[in-house]
Amino acid sequence: MTVRDIQRIQDAVAEYWPNVTWVESTGSTNADLLREGAPGTVLIADEQTDAKGRLGRQWVSPKGAQLAMSMVLEVPDPPQPFGLLSVAPGVAVTDVVPEAQLKWPNDVQIGGKKIAGILSALEMPRVIVGIGINVAMRTDDLPTDTSTALNLEGIEVDFDDFTIDILTAMGRRFAQWQQGDPQLLADYRAVCSTIGQQVRIELHDGSVTGAVDTINDEGEVVIDGTAYAVGDVHHLRPQ
User: Which of 55, 176, 225, 231 has the fewest CB atoms within 10 Å, counting from its CB?
Assistant: First the structure.
């Protein structure tokens, strides 16, 4: 799948994103916009050959299989909690794909399998947010056995319409972050499957296992009363 009418997409999302461009292939849309990209810029790519995910992992972006793009935001003054920025794009995806839920902080999943990855890069006073949503993939092409795609879950989309819907939802949710709107966190908690789970969180100096009490007002995960801002969370299946 690919963009058919970039001008139509641009016109539909201009309220939030005045500069939307598309390329067939690039190394990394995040890296491209880190080098040069004003707030309000969006770069969509059919293929990324050198993308990265959370914790430095490789981010697979096969040609025509994903909606892969990066967006540039302006950091408000004073800044809002960056933990809430990390959850905003995931909530935006659930606005468009109501079957999806979020594993803390921003893994977008359907039935416990990941359909989207999100990675942000801060360069004050800008922040670049990259996302790749698996739209149309074959089972054999999935990067892991815990991944899935919209088409594999019976969700078929028109690529341009889906791009418009996602960018519109992103614009609204990022505006909530910039304005400190508490509705963003309330809506995140409503779609966060991690709350109430028994989990193991991998930290830089070990791991912790326990029950997730909530996501606090900073966007941190609270496990048995202790808040963690960064870590790799694994939901533990009942024994």
Answer: 225
